Fold:
Amino acid sequence: MSTSRRAFLGKLTGAAAAFSLAPLGNQLWAEELADAQLRIAPLGPEEAAMEEDFWAIIQQAYTVSPNLLNLNNGGVSPQPKIVQDAVDRFNRMSNEAPTYMMWEQLNAGREVVRKGLADLAGVTPEEIVINRNATEGLDTVILGISLKKGDEVVLTKQDYPNMINTWKLRETRDGIKLVWVDLPLPLENDEDIVRRFEEKVTAQTRVIMITHMINWAGQLLPTRKICDMARKKGIVTIVDAAHSFAQVVFNVREWGCDYMGTALHKWLCAPFGTGMLYVKKERIKETYPVFANDKFASDDILKFENLGTRNVPAEMAIGHALDFHLAIGAARKEARLRWLKDYWARPLAQEDRMHVHTSFHKDYACALALVSIDGIKPATLAAWLRKEQQIVTVPIDWENLHGIRITPHVYTRPRELDRFIEAMRKARKEIKPDAE
Ligand SMILES: Cc1ncc(COP(=O)(O)O)c(C=O)c1O
Structure:
């Protein structure tokens, strides 16, 4: 190890120091990463976003297929090899004697994982639940809040279907009223967005549901400002951060929301079937869990973690995903993801018949964007890209949003996006317009 790198590693503190090179398993790769970290340390996130040497090393940490261009990383992310290896290792270890090795030995790391997640979210571990996905966390809250007939909930037509459907269940079961905001995207004015929520508020409003990043088109909403408005009126806020957690940098405490649910198998690249829920300390007591333990009316956050036998190997490997995320650097990762989106979306936005339905302003979007070609249905375009070009995208036809959603990830290379740009031009030429 070079003297300068040793000196640099010696100086690392906080988040960066939390990344231990030892468990990487691949010492050469780890050394290359350490050298690259040293080189980019003086750069700001936006400059580092363009350092291809650094991102090439990150790319090598994944095991993605070179023969397929996966531009639907928004659905679920691949895990870097260190996370896959940890799951395998923990699984083998658990199988030596599950009740002892899994429940006792492996599970002993649970509070360390919880602390790591709490630190990343900017809250206390006593407010964090480790669960299976964003749906479990958010639906627990939607089902667990006490609401009576006539109470109103403000939500948007662009929220995620699982949450919308659980709200509809409560509408049917409990007689609450759902009040809909319809967002014409993209939007680029905080005050305008807050006003669209505020104008739906009445004396009966009890809850506002906020999707921080709208999955259909990548729109970021000014969550802190919406929460501020709600708090002043005594309204509870639930934030769906399924897409924004570990994609963009934010602090849940600063938002001042009451609840936040997210997936960890999306942008954190943790094992499949891992998620997290934040419940503000003051809200824990009054919120009922879905699967009760004997403390269901207490202010103990663990009442939301009563699942019975669970996938402890996956949960414990969240720690490795956290380490990997911190090794890249949260701000650097956000800047790179936005840079990749701009890389393909800016040229396509200039093309004849093509439209990008996502903002280019950094406050309103990051990795995700929605693009369409006039006259070609999203499903037709996505199927053509998949069949003719081996490019995976996702067709979106939801409310006022129509196009294909494109989500590169930290391992995506610019030359792969060049291939996507060319494929889109070819699609425009070769696909016969769909009959409307
Ligand atoms: C905005 C949003 N919320 C919630 C979810 C559900 O996430 P999960 O599959 O982790 O339950 C998704 C999934 O794509 C999403 O995009």
Summary: The longest helix spans residues 330-349. Residues 133-135, 160, 162, 211, 215, 240, 242-243, 263, 275 surround pyridoxal-5'-phosphate (CB under 6 Å).
